[in-house]
Design a protein that fits this description.
This protein has twelve helices and ten strands. With about 350 residues, it is α/β, with parallel strands linked by helices. The chain has two domains: about 230 residues, Spore Coat Polysaccharide Biosynthesis Protein SpsA, Chain A (Alpha-Beta Complex); about 100 residues, no CATH class. Strands 3-2-1-4-8-6-9-7 form an eight-stranded mixed β-sheet, sandwiched between helices. A two-stranded antiparallel sheet has the order 5-10.
């Protein structure tokens, strides 16, 4: 029996899936991402894709509008607040699905059975939400983007408590990886906190974990993300993540970890080191030794990655990519600590209504 026929037989049992796609100025990638989603091996009447556009100033809305004529199950909603957290909420509030999955507008989805695998994973695990690997090794990446992808996949380039680059199917804490949810999860914990412009997913998933929901991680629903195309863009991305981590800690004090604040401590040391070095020569020796140790770790890790990937041109980019990651995250943490506003402790359902109403 063909897959299509199997789907027709099981149509009454197939869960309805809502794919939420928050976007802002994604004209370079949005058509490819949407076609990969809308061309899935999944019954069209059991699938809807909802694009939440944050008032894009490029051709994003025009592209989505043209695709709507081709795909009646593609919907477009407005996100006047622009941030991804608000866009996700705008889409979720009109979603009709039993399962809700978030996919950004700059992704590469290799498997045409992606959504079927997602539905299967929910069914066989019984979990309340799913996590997935999100590597950044897209097929169209240039030399710098490949270096960024490899750096972010290494122990030196991403948060040590994240499963986002794992390949082992298992139950895991949802904080760093959950991206697909049963509808009932939002009924219980509320929607994304719109005071976050980064780490909004970690904040929601922290509430999901506190509510006792289970998260199943499976590489069968892997999605590839497009890396930043410049060191400046990478720095700014990491700075946003750093600011988001501080906001997360302000709202949920139990989320504190040394790993999240270590880049800020290191950056502060780099900036203040010359001043303290003038006070005591032992401090000067410690400062210089620390810089040499960091440089050695970065160069050694860069060489190891280049050898492993048999891509020696990476040796040019990786020693620049790692500092952009670390200093960007550190800058974001310090900036938020110095000038950021405190996130109010909100009720259990936060400042958004659930979906029961």
């Amino acid at each position: 029996m063909s897959t299509t026929t199997q789907h027709e037989v099981l149509a009454g049992q197939l869960p309805r899936i809502s794919v939420v796609v928050p976007v802002l100025n994604e004209e370079n990638f949005i058509e490819s991402t949407l076609r990969q989603l809308l061309g899935q091996n999944y019954l069209a009447d059991r699938l809807e894709v909802i694009v939440a556009d944050g008032r894009s100033t490029d051709r994003t809305r025009e592209i989505v509008g043209s695709l709507q004529a081709e795909y009646p199950n593609l919907h477009l909603v407005d996100n006047p607040l622009k941030w991804s957290s608000a866009g996700r909420n705008a889409a979720i509030q009109v979603a009709q699905g039993d399962l809700i999955v978030v996919v950004d507008g700059h992704c590469q989805i290799d498997d045409t059975n992606y959504l079927q695998n997602l539905a299967d994973a929910f069914q066989r695990s019984g979990a309340d939400c799913l996590g997935r690997p999100q590597p950044q090794d897209v097929s169209t990446a240039n030399a710098l983007q490949r270096a960024i992808a490899s750096a972010r996949d290494s122990w030196l380039g991403h948060h040590s408590q994240s499963f986002i680059y794992s390949s082992v199917e298992q139950f895991v804490p949802p904080q760093s990886v959950a991206v697909a949810y049963r509808r009932e999860v939002f009924d219980e914990v509320g929607l994304f906190d719109e005071s976050f412009d980064a780490c909004e997913d970690v904040e929601l998933n922290h509430r999901v974990d506190q509510a006792g929901f289970q998260c199943f991680f499976t590489p069968n629903v892997r999605v590839r993300y497009v890396p930043r195309s410049s060191l400046k863009g990478l720095f700014r991305q990491m700075a946003r993540y750093g600011r988001g981590r501080v906001r997360l800690w302000r709202k949920h004090r139990d989320t504190f970890s040394i790993a999240s604040f270590l880049p800020a401590l290191f950056l502060a040391g780099v900036l203040l080191g010359p001043v303290f070095s003038m006070l005591n020569w032992w401090l000067a020796i410690f400062y210089i030794s620390t810089l040499l140790l960091y440089s050695g770790i970065v160069l050694g890790t860069s060489a190891s990655i280049a050898i492993k990937n048999r891509n020696f041109p990476m040796l040019f980019w990786l020693p620049l990519v790692f500092p952009a990651i670390h200093f960007g995250a550190g800058y974001g943490v310090l900036l938020e600590l110095l000038v950021g506003k405190s996130v109010k402790k909100l009720p259990s359902n936060d400042n958004q209504v659930g979906l029961k109403n």
